[in-house]
Amino acid sequence: MDSTDDVSEISSNRFTIFPRLPAELRAKIWQAAITPRVIRCRRTNDENLFTAPSKSVTLFEVNRESRNIAFLYGGFILLSTTPCYVYFSPKIDYLLFDVGWKSLAPPQYPLIHAATPPKVPKDFIASLEAIDPALKMLRNIMVHPNWNDQRMTPTVALARFPHLERVLVASDEKSIGLRSEVMFSTVHDIKMYYGITRERSPEVTTPRIAVGCLGWTGKDRWTMHHGRHDNRQLVAVFQDYAAMKEHQKLLQEEEKRFTEERFGPRTPSFMLKLRLAREAHSTEPKPITILPAIGSPSKPPTYEEATSANAPLEE
Hints:
Elements: H1 3-12, H2 23-32, E1 38-44, E2 47-51, H3 64-74, E3 77-80, E4 86-88, E5 94-97, E6 101-103, H4 124-131, E7 140-143, E8 152-154, E9 166-172, H5 176-200, E10 208-215, E11 233-238, H6 241-263, H7 269-280, H8 303-307
Parallel strand pairs: 1-5, 5-7, 7-9, 9-10
Antiparallel strand pairs: 1-2, 3-4, 6-8, 10-11
Helix pairs in contact: 5-6
């Protein structure tokens, strides 16, 4: 390709020489384009319902070569065909589900019900293996937090995933300030679960456990209504409170810039009303200014006269 072609490539923002690259280099580029997604699993009536972000695997829609590379390096498997096709990569993607929580203390049932304990639901991990044995090779999962203020352990035996590398507690990006304590309490619960499990089975390895922050990306980031589909993706991982608070600060700055760009330099009316309402309901005492009596500007009252509750007012 000569210099004229180089200029035309740059001016048009198109990379048309990609098909002429070596096959090994193209494969590396396709592989780098595979990004982790969050696939949600909701269990109802002993059945698993999977949902995935719409058109989230872009390599499936480029050409035959990109699709083959995605299946080769991503190891995608078909989870469901209804209401739409849901593909999942046990190597890269995150499976988000509710692990359920149980108390550390053994349940105490009334004597009359001692012979009939509560019904145990069908094993979740066995249901995944029934769909595809490759799901036993999960590397990344996300779980819903434990909202109980007591220390509990998950009902799903996470240690039965032998290749698990990361367990993230799902947290919404815009509520991390309110839920930070709950999130890290759940992190502690999962670490406690693995500690108890390792005492019984030392061969079990503890994965990386942290808080996973979910948020909207792209054009949906500042959209008020997102429709019926939850396309939030993993945008950050937090190991401690400090990292979460720093992300919250950055998010507030981003919201401020968005507000200024959307509404201009003037303060929006709803924000001004909110600020005035906060000032009106502020609990801080307001300073009291003692003014001199009207009608005698040449002779201000003494300190005793101004502060006396029974002092008569001058006409």
